[in-house]
Design goal:
This protein has about 450 residues and is mainly beta. It has helices spanning about 1-10, 210-215, 220-230, 300-305, 405-415, 415-425, and strands at about 20-30, 50-55, 60-65, 70-75, 80-85, 95-100, 105-115, 115-125, 125-135, 140-145, 150-155, 160-165, 170-175, 190, 235, 250-255, 260-265, 270-275, 280-285, 290-295, 305-315, 315-325, 330-345, 350-355, 360-365, 370-385, 390-395, 430-445, 450-460. Strand 2 (about 50-55) and strand 3 (about 60-65) form a beta hairpin. Pfam families: Cupin_1.
Length: about 450
């Protein structure tokens, strides 16, 4: 197949990179046309990382499949789509993945969770409030506006609420690490308000009215009114627009001994980092761009233990094959279409799928993958289970091939050194360098093939 042949060829040429340090590699595939899904690539199958007896990966062979969410919940102010428990189970992590859709004036009721979480704003604007403990152990609160492209990190135990004060839907994609929760594999929310319900009810309903009245030092009828007035749960719809102060003028507040202290505004941005407004970490003309949020630019991710990466591929571009040695990946296709291939340690194909907007994939650590954009380009988000992920490319200056002598590589590929050196001699020192023009086969359908001309582009650090 097109991606497989390209991967093999790129591996052959990997160690011939320029002595300049490569940041990343993209490839331009001028005739790529991804195969549309058939019965074997539909979204109707279960989505899970399963293991079957095999000689690969410690006698276990991973299967990555795509599907719709396991569960969908509809509330007055929005909806929740959830992939739960064994849906995304890595050897060392159990993740709960969800998508929240707010309607206008939809309010996610104040709550905390037993899992560290990371979110990405797919659509719309809103306001997010977070109440967490400061280093002194006192609660501190912050409110900030969130918009498309924002990465937000909320540690477990922190109280948060979310409100759609914009016009139109407000969509959020989320992932939470449930490994250290109440029971691993299940996400538990503890809602501070809301109606009594079996699954999403407000936690205060678990206490006696008289006990709460004594704790608050109020009459029992007031407590009853607090508990019974709200008929909704999880995401309610406000009958009137909630007027919140401008987050740009708000500090983080905490109190001690009855004295309120207003802290500096930098705390507000600690939970938020925008991947759209900031300059990309990498840009390749005709190739694409990438931008990440990790513990270096969003410090709270160190506590959450996760990070996020946005990649935008131009039409028919290819991201160089890579793997992460310290992080599993949750890949969400935001827009466009293309093809994703995942290989096992014994050279077998684990996944070879046509993907489109809304597709979600789980790729375990150490497992290499390659992503090829279709004619409309490919934009995707990756959540990683490390706050400082370590990518390893299979080609380029940072590839491990670079540390292997040419003589060894020639023997490894069973080719003469002149074949490798011929390509090396054609290189030029250029910030954007095209070193390969080679025709490959490009599978247009299950029954026909076409020629593919690939153009590999490097970006070098100055």
């Amino acid at each position: 197949m097109c991606g497989t042949h390209l991967l093999h060829l790129l591996s052959l040429l990997a160690e011939l990179s320029s002595p300049l340090p490569t940041i990343a590699i993209f490839a331009k595939a001028t005739c790529f046309n991804p195969i549309p899904p058939d019965d074997n690539t539909s979204f109707s199958g279960s989505f899970q990382t399963q293991a079957k007896d095999d000689t690969s990966l410690g006698k276990k062979k991973l299967e990555l499949e795509l599907s719709f969410p396991q569960e969908e919940f509809h509330f007055e102010g929005g909806s929740l789509r959830v992939w739960r428990r064994d849906v995304i189970t890595f050897p060392d992590k159990q993740l709960d993945v969800s998508e929240i859709i707010f309607q206008e004036d939809g309010l996610l009721l104040p709550q905390y969770a037993d899992a560290d979480g990371i979110s990405y704003v797919l659509q719309g604007t809103g306001k997010l409030g977070v109440v967490s403990l400061s280093e002194s152990g006192l609660p501190q609160s912050s409110i900030r506006r969130v918009e498309q492209g924002d990465v937000l990190a909320i540690p477990k135990g922190a109280v948060f609420w979310w409100y759609n004060d914009g016009y139109g839907e407000h969509r959020i994609f989320c992932a939470s690490d449930t490994s250290g929760g109440v029971n691993s594999g299940l996400y538990h929310q503890f809602t501070l308000a809301g109606a009594r319900m079996d699954r999403f009810g407000g936690l205060l309903h678990g206490f006696g009215v008289e006990v709460l009245a004594d704790a608050w030092n109020v009459d029992e009828d007031i407590v009853t009114r607090l508990l019974e007035s709200q008929n909704g749960t999880t995401i309610v719809k406000s009958p009137r627009r909630i007027r919140l102060p401008d987050p740009r003028g708000i500090g983080v507040h905490s109190s001690h001994g009855g004295i309120e202290v207003k802290q500096t505004n930098f705390k507000i941005s600690e939970f938020r980092y925008n991947l759209n407004r900031e300059y990309p970490d990498l840009y390749v003309k005709r190739g694409g761009w990438k931008k990440g949020a990790d513990e270096s630019n969003l410090p709270v991710l160190r506590k959450v233990g996760m990070s996020a990466l946005r990649v935008g591929l131009e039409p028919n571009a290819v991201e160089a094959p890579l793997y992460f040695s310290n992080a599993n990946q949750i890949v969400y296709i935001i827009r466009g279409n293309g093809r994703i291939e995942v290989a096992s340690n014994d050279g077998e194909s684990i996944l070879d799928k046509y993907v489109g907007a809304g597709t979600i994939l789980a790729i375990p650590k150490f497992t290499p993958s390659i992503k090829v954009a279709g004619d409309g380009g490919l934009s995707f988000l990756t959540f990683l289970t490390s706050s400082r992920p370590l990518p390893s490319y299979l080609i380029g200056r940072n590839s491990f091939y670079e540390g292997i002598p040419t003589q060894v590589m020639a023997e490894a590929f069973d080719v003469d050194e002149s074949t490798l050196l011929e390509v090396q001699e054609k290189r030029k020192v250029d910030e954007l360098y095209s070193f390969l023009r080679q025709r490959h086969r490009c599978l247009q359908s299950r029954m026909s093939t076409a020629l593919l001309q690939a153009e590999i582009m490097y970006i070098f650090a100055c």
